[in-house]
Amino acid sequence: MRVQRRRLVNASLLTMSGLGSLPALAADSAAPPPKKLRLLILGGTGFTGPHQVRYALARGHEVTLFNRGREPKAWPGAVAELIGDRNTGDLKALEGKRWDVCIDNPTTLPFWVRDAGRALQGRIDQYIFISTISVYADNDKAAADEFAALAPYPRADPMAETMQTLRGRIGELYGPLKAVSEQEAARQFPGAATIIRPGLIVGPGDETDRFSYWPVRLARGGEVLAPGDGSDPVQFIDARDLAEWTIRMAESRSFGVFNATGPDEPLTMAAMLGGIASGVRADPKLTWVPTEFLEAKQVSAWSDLPVWVPGQGDSAGFARRDIGRALRAGLTFRPLPTTAADTLAWFRTQPAERQVKLRAGLAPDREAELLAAWKASATPGG
After folding, report:
1. What's the CA gap between 356 and 351, in Å, rounded?
2. pLDDT over 70 (residue 7)
3. N or C: which end of the chain has fewer CB atoms below 10 A?
4. How far are the Cα atoms of 207, 222, 226 from residue 371, in angstroms, in the given order?
5. Separation of CA 280 from chain center
6. In DSSP terms, which residues pair with 268 in a beta bridge?
7. Cα separation of 281 and 15, whole Å?
8. Which of the four CATH numbers 3.40.30.10, 3.40.630.30, 3.90.1150.10, 3.40.50.720 does domain 2-378 have?
């Protein structure tokens, strides 16, 4: 009964967001847009935002950015830029203006959504909120869809939370904060909200190295420590695929909640490394090291060995989220070798000091140490 109750609570959010109004869409991303849109993008200068801007301009839309103006970009067309600060509630630059669609990229704090709703009430037709797959309460069930229970927020008043009150707990509370933000989006924009829940976002421009580690590591060559036995599932999405699909969701006026990760067919860790190797033209020697050994050596899934989580137990469903709704709404994917090659090419343009130490993954000496320990343990009498 408890599971059913959670399902009904989440179903009410989906209904408020217009889940039942999904139109049939063509998957042809090259098709011309049905009309020219006036787009307001909150943020726009981070990881996915610039891809949205460039794609929107290429498709003939008018683009306005609203942010703090701290990361100016050179755009391939006219882009209006408004300055404000959502941390302090300064949204004056939005007053008296109208857009067809607002895309909210950077929001983690629920009061940002509340303030955007107040500022834009009656002056947009669609609000697209970029959320996260991390909103879910559990990851133990394969093929869980958008109706799965959301993570509850454990503190007293999520609307009172700021970066200062969180005091370093943002990582721990990221998913629950996004879940509350989704609910606020549905309240502020009833019937006009589109909630997109990406998985791991990858590709050129990723400053976290949570995917970049693998193209860089495979291209370096030599013996590579690979986690598990190769059968664990993985899911992720190229930032460009996410950004371009988001613009097409604005063009098609698609409302509701969508898991947005990929690829469109199940992918294992072994197949992922094979696709990356193909993209970076590498022929690595992979040594698969069992999960139990890695856990005993305190090697962390996701951070020490990015993208990967064990495909059993509490994380059995983490990389098996159902993405059927997004696929039916026209989400498409670049080939994995293309993403890998482009990511490596981008990484090699970074300053030397940036390339020396990746921000995720095993350091070379730690990897060598683990490989030696695994071989010693696997040797009779070792």
Report:
1. 9
2. no
3. N
4. 27, 12, 10
5. 23
6. 233
7. 47
8. 3.40.50.720
Measured CA to CA, the distance from residue 53 to residue 41 in angstroms comes to 8
Please state the pTM of the whole predicted model.
Answer: 0.91
Going 307 to 308 to 309 to 311, the CA torsion angle's sign is: positive
- CA-CA-CA-CA dihedral for 220, 292, 275, 334, to nearest 10: -110
pLDDT at position 381: 65
Buried residues in 85-121 as b, exposed as e (16+ CB within 10 A):
ebeeeebeebeebebbbbbbbbbbbbbbbbbbbebbe
Q: Which residue has the tokens 């294992």?
A: 268
Alpha-carbon distance of 296 to 292, in angstroms, equals: 6
Q: What's the average model confidence in pLDDT over 157-170?
A: 91
Phi and psi at residue 267, in whole multiples of 5°? Answer: -130, 130
Tokens linked to 50 = 């610039």
Please report which helix (H) or strand (E) contains residue 336, including its range.
helix 336-347
Selection from 45, 128, 37, 38 nearest residue 83 by Cα: 45
Distance between CA atoms of 150 and 5, rounded to whole angstroms? 12
CB 187 within 8 A of CB 113: no
Residue the block writes with tokens 């005091």: 167
Specify whether the CB–CB gap between 60 and 35 falls below 8 A.
no
Q: What are the start-end ranges of the E strands in the chain?
A: 38-42, 62-67, 79-83, 101-104, 126-130, 193-198, 201-202, 223-227, 233-238, 256-260, 262-268, 285-289
CA 87 to chain centroid, in Å, comes to: 22
* Predicted local distance difference test score (pLDDT) of residue 30: 62
Q: What integer best gives the mean pLDDT of the chain?
A: 92
Both tokens of 101, joined, read 């669609």
8 A C-beta contact, residue 137 and residue 150: yes
The two three-digit tokens of residue 308, written as one number = 């990967």
R_g over Cα of the chain:
21
Q: Which residue has the tokens 């009430």?
A: 121
Query: Which residues on adjacent β-strands are paired with residue 64?
Result: 40, 80
Specify the pairing of strand 285-289 against strand 256-260: unpaired
**H helices present in 168-290, as ranges:** 170-188, 213-220, 239-252, 269-280
